[in-house]
Amino acid sequence: MARPRSASRTTARCVMRSNEAGSRLVYGPEVICVAPIGTVRADVVERVVRWLREALGLPVIIGRIPIDPEDAFLANRGQYDARRLLLELNEHSASAAVRLVGITESDLCNVILDFVFGEAQLDGNVAICSAYRLSEKGEAEGREEATARRLMKVVLHELGHVFGLSHCEDEDCAMHEAKSLADIDRRSTRYCSSCIEALSWEIRRRVPSATDAAVATSHAA
Ligand SMILES: [Zn+2]
Ligand SMILES: [Zn+2]
């Protein structure tokens, strides 16, 4: 497949609305939804969503999902179970076409790792990303922007997993594995050409109406 051209937007014809039961959110077919889980700064959420739209060339909306991170609190670790939150998010992924990304300020972990920046259902529907470890002490000026930029990189990475991508050896690529804040800072806000190609193919396969959408080859942030 030829390298995708730069981002062209599909029309966001889907809206988030309540269904008749009133408790479950229903989405249109071509949306990536970013949902704050617990208290997350609104300006951080809005920055992440704006940059994601630019990077992916797909509609990205902000959703309100009734998940309480405290349900996933692990008292013995003082952290939050990422996989429990993934399961809860999956229950709210009403349409198979929807990709739902929860973002939280809670410290995430799983049974294997001391902490995770994010975790995703590989080739699935949902991901969870945390801003908890994305700030450094002493980063006063512009700290929110730096944190939001790192969070956007984590979201981009986890979304890649949701669309079936595995880790990439290109250190500049969004799909390169990050084990530390420094790793995230080294990573760019874009996918390498191989990952763009794979991601574009996956998006077109799963989201038929997105035939004119393409993953941007660069990102302004
Ligand atoms: Zn990964
Ligand atoms: Zn790559």
Explain what you see.
- This protein is of the alpha/beta class.
- The protein has one domain (17-208): 3-Layer(aba) Sandwich (Collagenase (Catalytic Domain)).
- Helix content is 29%, strand content 15%.
- The chain has five helices and ten strands; from the N terminus they run E-E-E-H-E-E-E-H-E-E-E-E-H-H-H.
- The chain has helices at 42-56, 82-91, 143-162, 181-186, 193-206, and strands spanning 17-18, 25-26, 32-37, 60-62, 73-74, 79-81, 99-104, 108-109, 118-120, 126-130.
- The strands form three sheets. A five-stranded mixed beta sheet has the order 4-3-7-10-9, sandwiched between helices.
- It is globular.
- The structure holds zinc ion (2 copies).
The sequence of SSEs as H and E is EEEHEEEHEEEEHHH
Q: What does the main sheet amount to?
A: 5 strands, mixed
Helix content: 25-40%
Q: Please give the order of strands in the largest beta sheet.
A: 4-3-7-10-9
- Unreliable runs: 1-28, 211-221
Q: Output the CATH class name.
A: Alpha Beta
List the domain count as a whole number. Answer: 1
